[in-house]
Amino acid sequence: MRFLLCLLLFAAAAAAQPTGTIEGRVVATDGSPVPRATVRLQGMSQGGATSTVYIELTDKNGAFRVEKVPVGSYIPMATHPGYQGSTGAVPVPVSVTEGKTASGVQIRLARLGSVSGVVVDADGAPVEGVQVSLLRTNSLMGRLGVSQAGAALTDDQGQFRIANAQPGRYRLQAILNSSQFGPGPGWVEVRGRSARVTDLPTFYPNTTDMEKATAINLQAQAITGLKLQMRRGRTYRVQGMVTNAPNAPARVSVMVNPKSGTNGIGVGVGANGEFVINGLAPGEYVLIVRGSEPGAAQMTGRAEITVKDADLTNVNLRLMTPQELTGSLKVEGVTDIVSFFAGMNATRPIILRGPAGTQIPSGPMVSLFPAEPGPIGPVQLTVNPDGSFRATAVTAGSYLLNIGNLGLGIFVKQAKLDGKDLTGKRLELGEGKHTLELLLSTASASVTYQLTRPSPLVLWPVVPDLLTQNGSVFLNTGNIITNIPPGEYFVATWEESPAADLARAPEFLRHFNNLATRVTLQPGISTPLQPKMIPRDALQKVLAEF
């Protein structure tokens, strides 16, 4: 009976809640309808609570209608087999008002494509067992890089096919897995020819340099008949030592990562710390070593090498021990930090919650994120009530800063490592103890704007920020942005949104400096903006370079 009463009360409360309706269509990029697409309306959460998701299917005309949706803001998304999900672009929220219908919502999906062809060796013979990869430019932590978007192995006829590839601009790479890093340490002359001559990692149609590769512009289509001919050449050996290694060699490994492409390989380390890497083609590489004693924090080290036309010997990889990092958060013009942070926490309107409903501390949060791919993980620093923090086992390496959970109007004005200003630099933690000083200010800038169409606004600094995780890039679909460090910025909006990761990368955004509006944001001032719109063809022209 009690359960039934609670159910009735819940139903009555739900019935009393003001609602509205959302309707629209799901279409392909050519405007044709997408029947039976799954539409999801994700409510924008408030106070950290889990929001309701509304799901509906489109009819034969690609239309959908969701009724009795509680008043609020929702992100419309759609999926369908054979199409790229709508989450690839920057989502634009839809507002629901009581008794009204939000109509005209259009969700665009791009059909997936495929790439197929044949891989042959330098003599024109088909090659079996070659890994063929689609590589595309993307952004990680606001920095541009290359990632694999699909791969396939060639069959006994050298044929390959990569299906369900998202539309985009790609480079195609072929790597003969069995010989990428050589057949092993015991190389011998075979029929008068060195075993180190092999088919090199090659980009379509026939180059070892990714910058010289022919890009493939894949849309909603099947690209067939591609012929990738592998380059044959001499490969080389790299020998070296891992120093400062743990006593257990099995706990030490070396990873070899080419700077162009995404394929790497791990090699073991001998009892005395020696390592041998066979079969490296000419090019630039990053060597990353990691190791640890049982129960101890991880040790890492790195070195960059260039292979030209000879073997490399005496390469030194030093494992660096975990470092101690102490620091403090101070606020400009504030002497009683404890009271300031306590007051800020008491007035915060939103309480964040983590996994399983655990409450995240409402005070400032200092995080370190690795500035490049590798074995280093993120570091979360616990900030004490007086603004101090300390970590005793931070892996040595290059990091980006993220200072989160700050109050309204607060920004990071200055960062110093061991007394040196970090403006225009990354956070480099070498061996030894380090001190990180962070100065906050309560005089941040803000901007307001009104857009004539639902499109995200992007604000990026004139001088790229190398230190912070977001690179001081602000991406928003509302009508106000706060907590902006004062300074010089470019601002624009899009006729067609790029992928969300690229839209947050300063290295990508700089290509639109001449199409954007340059603004100066003053401390403590809210500036109204009238952003220019970047045309679709201008975006496509820049994307063609990536």
Describe the fold and architecture.
The protein is built from four helices and 44 strands. The protein is mostly beta strands. The protein folds into five domains: 19-111, Carboxypeptidase-like, regulatory domain (Immunoglobulin-like), CATH 2.60.40; 113-234, Immunoglobulin-like, CATH 2.60.40.1120; 236-318, Immunoglobulin-like; 323-441, Immunoglobulins (Immunoglobulin-like, Sandwich); 445-543, Immunoglobulin-like, CATH 2.60.40. Strands 10, 11, 13, 17 and 18 form a five-stranded antiparallel β-sheet that branches. A five-stranded mixed β-sheet has the order 31-28-36-33-34, with no helix packed on it. Strands 38, 39, 41, 42 and 44 form a five-stranded mixed β-sheet that branches. A hairpin with a 6-residue loop joins strand 22 (252-258) and strand 23. The longest helix has 15 residues, at 2-16. The chain is globular and about 75 Å long. The termini are far apart.
Q: Which structural class fits the helix and strand makeup? A: mainly beta
The total of beta strands comes to: 44
Task: Give the class-level CATH name of the largest domain.
Answer: Mainly Beta
Largest beta-sheet details: 5 strands, antiparallel
- CATH fourth-tier homologous superfamily of the largest domain: Carboxypeptidase-like, regulatory domain
Mean of residue pLDDT values: 82
Beta fraction of the residues? over 45%
Helix content: under 10%
- Ends: how far apart? 64 Å
The radius of gyration computed from the alpha-carbon positions, rounded to a whole number of angstroms, is 27 Å
**Rough outline:** globular
